[in-house]
Design goal:
single chain, mainly alpha, Rossmann fold, 2 domains, two-stranded parallel ribbon, 5 helices
Length: 115
Amino acid sequence: MSLLRSRQMKAGLHVLVEKPISESMPSAQAMVRAAQRYDRTLMVTQQYRYQDHPRMLRQLIAEGAIGDIDHIVTEFQIRGCSLEWRQRMEHPFLMDMAIHHFDMMRYLLGATGFV
């Protein structure tokens, strides 16, 4: 996966990927290095941060209307792994769905960069 993305960036293309960004951390890191090397944008789509509720909540947090954030609790429920490709994943809830919640928490708190 990362080799194809690297070729696209080398060809001068910006790359928008779905999550998970890659099948492994080394592969994802190679994609990030390629984006830096070729001065291309590598962006992972995340939809929760663009919904009305998270945007309003982020604004309230930024304005101090809520006060200091001590911790965030998120909950997700689904009735099983309904799609066949999710059933083949080793950790479908972590790899396919939880990333949205991690990203939303980072968005709400104004976190940037990688840990």
